[in-house]
């Protein structure tokens, strides 16, 4: 089938540019990850950066992703727009790789629409908007490269493609541990109609490599078991996380973990629409193709189902499979107009969801930027020795959790030891703790001082 022409291509291009313009207009960061790291490396020369080596490991093993993040913050950290421009550039790279992969397995027309949907869908924007999600972006890029190398290996069994596949796997693992799913992705791709059944030896090598890596990281890492945020648990986490991830693409919630409608209602709506999406896709593409695409969407999130929390950026790699399913369904001639119309409806929901999420991130970025600047100014103006202790009190209309996420984990700011706590009223401030009022726009002002500075 020929690729789309004229109007559709121009319209999607405008939509993509508009969505990324919203993202690039974001003037701030969203979490303490980038703030802490930026404060630690401020003023250092490039040769003085605490880069990770392939032999460094602790709670995480992500030397390639960490070093990319560290150097980006070192180069552009005081200009968040430039850091986000790097994130968008990495997203554009992944978008191009999605286009190449879908073009090789399905066709040019589906590839165009899949790349367009991937670029702005709700499942992608979390990992693009948050600077510290560089691990997901780079790991996904290497996974996509690995899938392309695998397809070339199946078509032309040469040693070079096998070596390239192994290199992609190692690089992906050095960006994020969940990239150990590449052998499963390759196995699903091997079962499609367009490739030959070869490459068993390389697949065994990949599986052995990932198995050894998983054993080393899970069994040989005592920090994992004691971490509150990343301790693995099958009983308490898998079902809850699975429901969140299944419902999120079509649920009326802009961010995982924040939901004005209530978790139960939002999850029910999302699951109902997700079921409708699967049924419509199966009617358009057939059960076999739909099942393969669902596997490609589910496999990347299998490792994070064990975590005690669900995060939107974990869905970045899965977004490519969901976008492909939608693109294939809206371009196929099978199923009639009503099925195509339903598929277009699901695509519209996913895109509007993504744009709304980007707008929310932009709003949060402005608030966080103001909060961080005011907090840093208060710390710099403090002439008292020792830890600068603050209690933050939210005014009516303030989403205090935004400030809490960026300030409470900080242990130092501009080289000074700090401690931030949060309360509902200023009367609870202890001696030696300065009480601050947080406004809805993110500004901080001092209410009272319970002890001399």
Structural summary, described in words:
There is one protein chain. The chain is α/β, with parallel strands linked by helices and 453 residues long. It has two domains: 6-363, no CATH class; 365-449. Helices cover 62% and strands 6% of the residues. It contains 17 helices and five strands. The protein has helices at residues 6-24, 32-41, 63-76, 80-105, 108-120, 122-129, 134-155, 159-173, 182-190, 200-219, 222-226, 234-247, 263-285, 287-298, 316-331, 336-380, 400-407, and strands at residues 388-394, 412-413, 416-423, 434-438, 444-449. Strands 2-3-1-4-5 form a five-stranded mixed β-sheet, with helices on one face. A hairpin with a 5-residue loop joins strand 4 (434-438) and strand 5 (444-449). Helix 7 (134-155) packs parallel to helix 9 and helix 12 packs across helix 13. The chain is globular. Residues 1-7 and 256-261 have low confidence and may be disordered.
Summarize this structure briefly.
By secondary structure, the protein is α/β, with parallel strands linked by helices. It is built from 17 helices and five strands.
Summarize the topology.
Layout (H helix, E strand, L loop, with lengths): L5 H19 L7 H10 L21 H14 L3 H26 L2 H13 L1 H8 L4 H22 L3 H15 L8 H9 L9 H20 L2 H5 L7 H14 L15 H23 L1 H12 L17 H16 L4 H45 L7 E7 L5 H8 L4 E2 L2 E8 L10 E5 L5 E6 L4
Parallel strand pairs: 1-3, 1-4
Antiparallel strand pairs: 2-3, 4-5
Helix pairs in contact: 3-7, 4-5, 4-7, 5-15, 6-15, 6-16, 7-8, 7-9, 8-10, 9-10, 12-13, 13-14, 13-15, 13-16, 14-15, 15-16, 16-17
List keywords for this structure.
453 residues; alpha/beta; 2 domains; 17 helices; 5 strands
């Amino acid at each position: 089938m020929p690729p789309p022409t004229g109007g559709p291509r121009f319209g999607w291009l405008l939509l993509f540019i508009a969505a990324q313009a919203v993202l690039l207009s974001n003037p701030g960061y969203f979490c303490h990850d980038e703030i802490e790291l930026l404060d630690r490396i401020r003023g250092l020369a490039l040769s003085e950066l605490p880069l990770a080596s392939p032999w460094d490991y602790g709670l995480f093993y992500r030397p390639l992703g960490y070093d990319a993040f560290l150097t980006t913050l070192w180069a552009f950290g005081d200009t968040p727009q430039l850091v986000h421009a790097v994130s968008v550039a990495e997203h554009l790279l992944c978008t191009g790789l999605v286009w190449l992969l879908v073009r090789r397995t399905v066709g040019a027309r589906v590839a165009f629409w899949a790349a367009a949907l991937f670029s702005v869908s709700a499942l992608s924007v979390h990992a693009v908007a948050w600077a510290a999600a560089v691990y997901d972006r780079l790991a996904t890029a290497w996974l996509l490269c690995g899938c392309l190398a695998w397809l070339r290996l199946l078509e032309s069994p040469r040693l070079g493609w096998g070596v390239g596949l192994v290199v992609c796997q190692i690089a992906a693992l050095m960006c994020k541990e969940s990239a150990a799913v590449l052998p499963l992705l390759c196995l699903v791709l091997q079962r499609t109609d367009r490739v030959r059944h070869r490459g068993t030896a390389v697949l065994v090598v990949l599986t052995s490599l990932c198995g050894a890596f998983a054993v080393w990281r899970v069994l040989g890492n005592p920090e994992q078991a004691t971490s509150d945020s990343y301790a693995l648990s099958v009983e308490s986490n898998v079902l809850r996380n699975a429901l969140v991830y299944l419902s999120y693409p079509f649920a009326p919630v802009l961010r995982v973990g924040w939901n004005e409608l209530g978790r139960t209602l939002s999850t029910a709506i999302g699951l109902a629409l997700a079921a409708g999406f699967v049924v419509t896709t199966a009617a358009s593409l057939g059960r076999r193709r739909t099942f393969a695409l669902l596997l490609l969407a589910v496999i990347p999130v299998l490792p994070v189902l064990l975590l005690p929390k669900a995060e939107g950026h974990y869905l970045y790699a899965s977004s490519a499979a969901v976008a492909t399913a939608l693109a294939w369904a809206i371009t196929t001639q099978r199923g009639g107009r009503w099925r195509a119309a339903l598929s277009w409806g699901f695509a519209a929901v996913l895109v509007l969801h993504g744009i709304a999420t980007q707008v929310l991130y932009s709003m949060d970025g402005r608030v966080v930027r103001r909060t961080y600047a005011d907090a840093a100014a208060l710390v710099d103006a403090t002439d008292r020795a020792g830890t600068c202790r603050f209690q933050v009190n939210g005014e009516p209309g303030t989403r205090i959790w935004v400030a809490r996420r960026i300030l409470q984990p900080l242990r130092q700011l501009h080289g000074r030891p700090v401690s931030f706590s949060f309360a509902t009223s200023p009367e609870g401030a202890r001696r030696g703790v300065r009480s601050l009022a947080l406004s809805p726009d993110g500004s901080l002002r001092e209410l009272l001082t319970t002890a001399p500075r």
